[in-house]
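Troubleshooting log. The previous run stalled partway through. Resubmitting the same two chains, unchanged.
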Amino acid sequence: MLVYQTFLKAARAKLPTVLLYWIIFTLIAFVLSFRAQDEINRHFETASARICIIDNDQSTASRALSDFLSSRHTLVTFDSCDRETLQDNLYYHRVDYVLTIPAGFEEKLFSGEADALVESAKLPDSACGYFIDRQADGYIGTLAAASAAGRSPEDAAAAADRIFQELPEASSVQFEEKSSASHKQMYYFFQYLPYVILMMIMQGLTPVLLAFRKTDIEKRSLCSSIHPNVQNAQIGLGCATFALASWLAFLIPGIFIYGPEQFFSNSGLLCLVNSAVFVLIATAVTLLLGTFPLGGEALSMISNVIGLGMSFLCGVFVPQWYLGDAVLSVSRFLPAYWYIRITNMLAGFSDETLSMHTYRTCIGIQLLFAAAIFAVYLASARFHRRAREG
Amino acid sequence: MNTPVVKIDNLVKRYKELVALDHFSLEIAEGEIFGLLGPNGSGKTTAINCILSLLAYDKGRIEVFGKEMKPDSYDLKRRIGVVMQNVAVFDELTVYENIDYFCGLYVRDKQLRKQYVEEAVQFAGLEEFTKFQPKKLSGGLLRRLNIACGIAHKPKLIILDEPTVAVDPQSRNRILEGITKLNENGASIIYTSHYMEEVEQICTRIAIMDKGRILATGTQKELKKMIKKSEIITIELIELPEADRQAILALPHVYQADFSGHRLVVLCSGGKHNLIRILNYLNERDLSVGHVYSKQPTLNDVFLEITGKELRD
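Second attempt completed without errors. Output:
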């Protein structure tokens, strides 16, 4: 295993560059953890939205609904409640949600009517507004159920309040938000992985591969009594060891930052498999680069173009939903797109719901990319060998 | 008769239209330092690459140690050491690690390898630099490391392809001494160069090649005998009338006499006492003589006479 050992010795000389990427990435992962923690709080504050309730009914049921919503959100009032003023306040984010309870609300509710009992105004596509709609509908539904059971408005309001106190909806929402946000920290970790792993493997491995492929060193090796296939196999094993070590170097800080429970949870494992497949792609790209006679500066330039280009085009640094359709249609031809698509699905960063079918498809496409790049590498190596043999 | 270390029969190697080796034939006996002398692009490196099976050739046969040399002749490759024209070492490894690696490609036994590597370090005079990385070595030391990497496994045939290119005179002498020592220790050597002085200094037999063909083979003496010129006499004179120049030209063995810039250059084609005869004539004619030089023809003269051009054209 002389060639393998020497390969690793030569790779050791490139450790400072690789470590630099690793340290920067680990620091970013730490910083992101705190940033994501802030986001949890922001999410929760958004749940406690500023609402304005215009109660034109002033009945027991309407007051109960107002009290219920104001107990969960911050109630704001305005001097004027005309439509134009409310729209302005919504536009300038002075209020997140406006509920209008029309006159006759209680009467309609207790007569069994279910449709359009209240009116709401919110910003278009507002998740917060949708959430308060659901809260209001849930409360009204409970009042309606109580009235259907023959209870008076006072009894129905009391029953609804009791039910909603027993069902800690707000805290459950808060808990879910917290859970998904803490997972998000981990997804951020995996989100940035393609760039760093590509750079680490390319910057660490390519110079060593180029050293072994240097014309005169290669000639000298070919003159030796070790079969070239054995030498190539040992070089391949060296690449695999380096790639595996780089991948493991990522897992260790990940486990420390997010804890083994989260890191090895179902979604964590899906991320791990995804990242392992991407490591294969990065290794194949590096092997291919290693077949070209590149100098230090050219290598640095090319690896930056590949690393940064793929990262920007595929949504590593910029979320995929910010990228235009034209960019996304191009990025589909790059492996990092499929990697990020999985991370987005798992983190809920995209509208796409997670399904194992889609997950397997994305993994399969990445494997195909790895196989294709590896095939090009083999063809390129063969071409260079033929050229050398004259 | 001993089996030749290397035997090449009618080797032809083409690069599309260009004929790099044109029916190239050669025999190198055991214990020789065989010089392949030729200008850049004459086919020396191509011939070496073919001998090492690094290049496929179109026609001919190559035998090393009496067996046909093929890309998978690993038993033969084990007995060959190669020193490439360019320094072929890893910048990422130290001097010792480099020699150890290239020796390890031939010698599996770790203990034996350690001994061989230490001997190679000593041979190349790199004892003080074993922990240095190649980048920190001077050009001469780098060349010595390159040689140490090629000979550490104690090969029986060593092929050195222009190992002294861009080397200072001190390092060059040390390298040439080292090659002679390797030969004394029993290795046969093929040495390619376009520096005729080096080839003259160390080679026991020489082949002059140009345009992929062997033009002449033999010892230095044999090669020099092949040409008309056997002595070059240069005499400083204040003046030389044309009649006297013609008279000198008519002397025995003189076939050329040129006078310009107060220098008379006379080319002789053999025979003895040529210088005395010319000096006697000048003395008789009362022509005062300054410095006088007489030299034997060089391999460059041989090359010049055979090809009509200088070795370093």
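Takeaways: Confidence is low (pLDDT under 50) at residues 168-179 of chain A. The beta strands of chain A are 50-55, 74-75, 97-101, 119-122.
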